[in-house]
Amino acid sequence: MSQYPPPGQYGNYPPGSYPPPPPGNYGPPGGQYWQESPKSKGLAITALVLGILAVIGSVTVVGGILFGLFAAIFGLIAMVKARNGTAGGLGMGVAGLILGIVGIIISILLAVFAYSWFVDNGGKDLVDCLNKAGNDQAKIDQCQNDFKTTISDKYGITVTPEPTP
Fold it and tell me: How many other C-beta atoms can be found within 10 angstroms of the C-beta atom of residue 151?
């Protein structure tokens, strides 16, 4: 048995050849066509990257606020341009705006927490003592040692040796 159909069963074409294309209204080869140029997504990408950096940099408070503000600004601009149809990347612009705002909020919360911890643990006393000390290095050292002692007493671990029999 042959792998090809018998001649004449599917047309009079030799094995391995293709039939001619059906007649149709195809344009001439190399014809002109119109294609819309891709829309720029640069602002949206910038907003997204800055938003990610804002969330990561929120640990340093200043980094979170700085990157967050720029991410929010670029995100808003990217969203406006995308809605007007002059740019693309609406989703990235929205994500950059949201991440920027989240970075700002985390930074502010961390700053408030750090300030309250500092005040609760004798930070105001340290600042007052340093202001009273002026340029006297011995008094400055005493203020710092008092603050270290306060922190050590509050959070330090004292190992008590086991009694010997």
Answer: 14
Cβ contact 86:65 at 8 Å: no
pLDDT of residue 70: 97
Task: Show the tokens assigned to 45.
Answer: 């990408």
Backbone angles phi, psi at 5, to 5 degrees: -70, 155
* Short-list 131, 133, 152, CA closest to 141: 133
Q: Are 81 and 35 in contact (CB under 8 A)?
A: no
Give the separation between CA 67 and CA 75, rounded to whole angstroms: 12
Q: What is the mean pLDDT of residues 70-90?
A: 93
Q: What is the pTM of this model?
A: 0.66
Q: Is 31 exposed, middle or buried (0-12, 13-18, 19+ CB in 10 A)?
A: exposed
Q: Please, are residues 63 and 53 in contact by the beta-carbon 8 Å criterion? A: yes
Contact between 100 and 71 (Cβ < 8 Å): yes
Could you tell me which residues come within 8 angstroms of residue 121 by beta carbon, excluding any fewer than 6 positions away? 150, 151, 154
Q: How many CB atoms lie within 10 A of CB 30?
A: 5
| Distances in whole angstroms, Cα of residue 145 to Cα of each of 83, 130, 133 | 60, 12, 13
Q: Are 67 and 52 in contact (CB under 8 A)?
A: no
